[in-house]
TrEMBL record:
Domain HTH cro/C1-type span(s) in chain numbering: 6-60
SUPFAM superfamilies in the record: lambda repressor-like DNA-binding domains
Name of the protein described by the UniProt record: Transcriptional regulator
Pfam families hit by this protein: HTH_3
GO MF term set: DNA binding
Organism encoding this protein: Orenia metallireducens
InterPro entries according to UniProt: Cro/C1-type_HTH, Lambda_DNA-bd_dom_sf
Protein keywords: DNA-binding
């Protein structure tokens, strides 16, 4: 699958084998090997190819048909809202926030409002303690 995808993407981007080779710092024969002999790149080269073509490494390897990582699609969709983008970045890194989201996502609106009210009370109490 990799050889098919790398060739397809190179052509979509209108790159010759030599141009792609120059971009990733290998010789043209290496690109030809990827496309015809089923050779696969090392991790660093695979990551660089994914970056150049703006696809996930999983897509290049044929593990998914989604070109972009779903997180990248979300980031792109919210990129014009700095506060929301900052929240998304934090959510992506913190397991505790992910758990909170997972625990509340199926709750009805009223229950979510209860959770929000509890969080606000905790914030007020913490603010009082620190002042």
């Amino acid at each position: 699958m990799f050889k098919k995808r790398i060739r397809q993407l190179r052509k979509e981007f209108k790159l010759t084998q030599q141009e792609l080779a120059d971009k990733i710092g290998v010789n043209r024969a290496t690109i030809a090997g990827y496309e015809t002999k089923g050779m696969e790149p090392g991790y660093d080269t695979l990551s660089e190819l994914a970056r150049i073509f703006n696809v996930s490494t999983d897509y290049l390897l044929g593990l998914t048909d989604q070109r972009q990582n779903p997180n990248d699609k979300i980031k792109s969709a919210i990129s014009d809202d700095p506060e929301l983008l900052e929240f998304w970045n934090e959510l992506s890194q913190r397991e505790d926030l992910q758990l909170l989201f997972k625990q509340t996502r199926d709750l009805p609106k009223e229950a979510i409002q209860d959770v929000i009210n509890i969080i606000r009370r905790i914030e007020r109490d913490a603010h009082k303690r620190h002042n």
